[in-house]
Amino acid sequence: MKKIVVLFLLLSIYANAQLGKSMFTKDPIINLENFDKQRIYWGYFLGFSTFDFKTDFKTNPAPNMLIDVKGHSGFNVGLVGVLRLHEYVELRFEPGLYYASRTLTYSQFDTERDGVREVKATYIDFPLILKFSSLRTGNVRPYLLGGLSSTLNLSSNSKSKDDNLEQKFRVKPWTQNYTVGFGVDLYFEYFKFSPSIRGVFGLKDELIRDTDPNSPWTGNIQSLKTRAVLINFTFH
To answer: Which among 18, 105, 162, 208 has most CB atoms closer than 10 A?
Structure first.
């Protein structure tokens, strides 16, 4: 996650250096002055992410029965379709492909075979996002965003008859999430660049329990929900 934040800061510094006086002076040269007046326009995004799980238990686990969830950096790519609803409000459809990985460590086990589960995911996300932009100042325009999404996990193992006894950690193929975030539009001479930071929060339990209701891997879990931090770099 620290690497993602550092990269975000470096790109911001680079944008500042490239635009220089054309953006941040009192009377900058206005780029793409009529761009946001379009009713519909398109773009694409690239980015990085860190996914983990929010785990709620049926009963408070003993210290030696905890589950440690560690998220790893992943990669995002997708398309963007924009419908302008108002001078300051846009409806955005941003279907994307997300590669994610998490490591679940069960402290009660002594062996890695039983105590560690690598949960990899390939998500196809279908979000509808409302973007609320501020008044444009020169070539800079901050914004807030929020929305809902349905997400298909192609690596859910949901059809597998094996469970954690056979080292198969299973989750449901479809999940629903809400997203909140913020960013800034930077207007260059030929394109608009929109970096953003977003939080994603699962709305429903995603876990498929093991066959044994007293399973040490899933028996005490009340719910398992996605959480994620996304850094997207969008180009229009």
So the answer is: 208
